[in-house]
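Fold this sequence, please.
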Amino acid sequence: MVRIHSRQPRKQRRARFTAPNHIRGRFLSAPLAPPLREKYGTRRARVVTGDTVRVLRGDFAGEEGTVDAVDTKACRLIVHGVVVTKADGTEVPRPVDPSNVQITKLNLKDKRREARLGGGS
Protein backbone atom coordinates (compact mmCIF):
# COMPACT_ATOMS: atom_id res chain seq x y z
CA MET A 1 0.00 0.00 0.00
CA VAL A 2 0.94 3.63 -0.04
CA ARG A 3 3.34 4.55 2.74
CA ILE A 4 1.37 7.09 4.75
CA HIS A 5 2.12 7.63 8.40
CA SER A 6 -0.97 9.68 9.05
CA ARG A 7 -4.38 8.45 10.14
CA GLN A 8 -6.12 11.54 8.80
CA PRO A 9 -8.75 10.55 6.20
CA ARG A 10 -7.85 13.48 3.97
CA LYS A 11 -4.24 12.30 3.68
CA GLN A 12 -5.33 8.69 3.15
CA ARG A 13 -7.63 9.76 0.29
CA ARG A 14 -4.98 11.99 -1.22
CA ALA A 15 -2.48 9.12 -1.18
CA ARG A 16 -4.91 6.86 -3.06
CA PHE A 17 -5.90 9.50 -5.62
CA THR A 18 -2.32 10.55 -6.36
CA ALA A 19 -0.75 7.08 -6.24
CA PRO A 20 1.49 6.05 -9.17
CA ASN A 21 0.43 3.25 -11.52
CA HIS A 22 2.52 0.52 -9.92
CA ILE A 23 0.79 1.19 -6.58
CA ARG A 24 -2.69 1.52 -8.18
CA GLY A 25 -2.38 -2.07 -9.38
CA ARG A 26 -2.43 -3.21 -5.76
CA PHE A 27 -5.77 -1.46 -5.21
CA LEU A 28 -7.22 -3.68 -7.98
CA SER A 29 -6.85 -6.94 -6.08
CA ALA A 30 -9.80 -9.04 -4.93
CA PRO A 31 -10.19 -12.09 -2.69
CA LEU A 32 -10.07 -15.55 -4.27
CA ALA A 33 -12.83 -18.15 -3.91
CA PRO A 34 -12.02 -20.91 -1.35
CA PRO A 35 -11.07 -23.57 -3.97
CA LEU A 36 -8.63 -21.13 -5.59
CA ARG A 37 -7.22 -20.17 -2.18
CA GLU A 38 -6.38 -23.79 -1.48
CA LYS A 39 -4.90 -24.35 -4.93
CA TYR A 40 -2.66 -21.28 -5.02
CA GLY A 41 -2.04 -20.72 -1.29
CA THR A 42 -2.93 -17.02 -1.39
CA ARG A 43 -5.97 -15.02 -0.37
CA ARG A 44 -5.97 -12.27 -3.00
CA ALA A 45 -5.00 -11.66 -6.60
CA ARG A 46 -5.05 -8.72 -8.97
CA VAL A 47 -8.15 -8.72 -11.15
CA VAL A 48 -7.48 -8.80 -14.90
CA THR A 49 -9.74 -8.74 -17.95
CA GLY A 50 -11.17 -12.19 -18.53
CA ASP A 51 -11.41 -13.28 -14.88
CA THR A 52 -14.79 -14.53 -13.71
CA VAL A 53 -15.98 -12.76 -10.56
CA ARG A 54 -18.97 -12.90 -8.22
CA VAL A 55 -20.29 -9.59 -6.85
CA LEU A 56 -20.58 -9.83 -3.06
CA ARG A 57 -21.93 -6.41 -2.08
CA GLY A 58 -24.36 -3.83 -3.40
CA ASP A 59 -27.39 -3.94 -5.68
CA PHE A 60 -25.88 -6.72 -7.80
CA ALA A 61 -24.83 -9.06 -4.97
CA GLY A 62 -24.83 -12.65 -6.18
CA GLU A 63 -24.32 -11.77 -9.86
CA GLU A 64 -21.48 -13.59 -11.60
CA GLY A 65 -19.80 -12.54 -14.82
CA THR A 66 -16.52 -12.05 -16.61
CA VAL A 67 -14.52 -8.87 -16.22
CA ASP A 68 -14.87 -6.90 -19.46
CA ALA A 69 -12.57 -4.03 -18.48
CA VAL A 70 -10.40 -2.78 -15.63
CA ASP A 71 -10.28 0.98 -15.07
CA THR A 72 -6.97 1.58 -13.30
CA LYS A 73 -7.49 5.34 -13.00
CA ALA A 74 -10.85 5.08 -11.20
CA CYS A 75 -9.97 1.72 -9.58
CA ARG A 76 -13.17 0.07 -10.85
CA LEU A 77 -14.15 -3.10 -12.74
CA ILE A 78 -16.66 -3.48 -15.56
CA VAL A 79 -18.37 -6.85 -15.05
CA HIS A 80 -20.41 -8.46 -17.84
CA GLY A 81 -24.08 -8.44 -16.84
CA VAL A 82 -23.82 -5.71 -14.21
CA VAL A 83 -25.73 -2.93 -15.96
CA VAL A 84 -28.17 -0.18 -15.02
CA THR A 85 -30.98 1.10 -17.20
CA LYS A 86 -31.00 4.82 -17.93
CA ALA A 87 -34.14 6.91 -18.16
CA ASP A 88 -34.17 6.62 -21.98
CA GLY A 89 -34.04 2.80 -21.75
CA THR A 90 -30.42 2.26 -22.72
CA GLU A 91 -28.30 -0.02 -20.55
CA VAL A 92 -24.89 1.13 -19.38
CA PRO A 93 -22.31 -0.86 -17.35
CA ARG A 94 -22.18 -0.16 -13.64
CA PRO A 95 -18.56 0.04 -12.38
CA VAL A 96 -17.84 -2.19 -9.38
CA ASP A 97 -15.18 -1.73 -6.72
CA PRO A 98 -12.67 -4.64 -6.64
CA SER A 99 -13.12 -5.04 -2.88
CA ASN A 100 -16.77 -5.98 -3.49
CA VAL A 101 -16.09 -8.97 -5.74
CA GLN A 102 -14.62 -12.45 -5.34
CA ILE A 103 -12.59 -14.12 -8.08
CA THR A 104 -14.14 -17.49 -8.94
CA LYS A 105 -12.17 -18.34 -12.10
CA LEU A 106 -8.81 -16.98 -13.19
CA ASN A 107 -7.85 -15.98 -16.72
CA LEU A 108 -4.61 -17.95 -17.18
CA LYS A 109 -3.88 -17.11 -20.82
CA ASP A 110 -0.71 -15.43 -19.57
CA LYS A 111 1.37 -18.33 -18.21
CA ARG A 112 3.43 -15.98 -16.04
CA ARG A 113 0.34 -15.21 -13.98
CA GLU A 114 0.04 -18.75 -12.65
CA ALA A 115 3.73 -18.70 -11.71
CA ARG A 116 3.21 -15.42 -9.87
CA LEU A 117 0.26 -16.85 -7.95
CA GLY A 118 2.28 -19.79 -6.68
CA GLY A 119 1.91 -22.29 -9.50
CA GLY A 120 -0.66 -24.49 -7.82
CA SER A 121 -0.06 -27.75 -6.07
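The beta strands are 29-31, 44-46, 52-55, 64-71, 76-79, 83-85, 91-93, 101-105. Residues 51 and 106 are 5 Å apart (CA to CA).
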